[in-house]
Amino acid sequence: MPRDTLAELSDDALLVLYANGDPExxxxxxxxxxxxxxxxxxxxxGDRAEAEDVAQEAMLRLWKQAPDWRQGEAQVSTWLFRVASxxxxxxxRQRKRRKAEPLKxxxxxxxxxxxxxxxxxxxxxxxxxxxxxxxxxxSLPDRQRQAVVLRHIEGFTNPEIAEVMGIGVEAVESLTAxxxxxxxxxxxGRREELGYGDED
Amino acid sequence: xxxxxRDPLLDDLFAEARADAPAMSTDFMARILADAERLQPKxxxxxxxxxxxxxxxxxxxxxxxxxxxxxxxFGLSSAAMAGLVIGYVxxxxxxxxxxGLGFAVTSQSVDxxxxxxxxxxxxx
Lengths: 200, 124
Fold this sequence. Notes:
The complex is a heterodimer. By secondary structure, chain A is mostly helical. Chain A has ten helices and no strands. Chain A starts with a helix and ends in a 13-residue tail after the last helix. Chain B is built from seven helices and no strands. Chain B is rod-shaped. Chain B is 64% helix and 0% strand. Chains A and B meet through helix 3, helix 4, helix 7 and helix 10 of A and helix 1 and helix 2 of B.
């Protein structure tokens, strides 16, 4: 099938073509989905190498799932982001355990309330706007961070986020609302520096 | 936070983040495509093994198979040859056996296919 025609197909259809042995389908799926997974992983983990590993592992699981994929039952993107979310959560837990064992206070890291101490905010002095956002995101609890990134950066709808996270739509709304409030609080100390000091 | 309770700073940062896609390294994409190639099911080829196998078999092979194989062909050939030899040589014992059965066969008149007349004569 010509590449132009393939480019118009849905992720679902491309995955079926991949399962039928079409080599071009894999290239298009990877080009569409891997960058999004990579960006999502970086927002959750704050580390490029780990984000690449998560994205690659999620895509690998998609390739394995392809022969048994049932068209119409789930979106490829939500399925992939769910896998990536679980992989990232596992890595965050491992990271916390590694930090907790020697320091004995790791449970407090990354958990409510956001770290808005003068020392933490001082680290933002040399950072650009994206780094400021990332640092604020890093201060959120894992589930709030996932929900906020999926809703406001990846552009998923609340029902799609509910599917990705395996929770109800109301829980998604609660997580995103609390996440945005926490982000606002985390950025409060940099508002003027980021050019928004006079708007409040 | 309600819809009217918007934070312009946060909204702008989200918009910038959506546009700020990280660059993909060629190595990263190569690893993903290598996985895809390794795990991709092979394309199904519509082979015709039965027809291809029969194409190499000649007419005689198929006739021999229909008659029961090489052993059966050898047996039939041997019987046919024996019949021809007996017909030409006409050994004494065969002529005596023919006389005993009432067939008037002599060395001068060989009737390989005796007709009904011979049968009638034999019954007389």
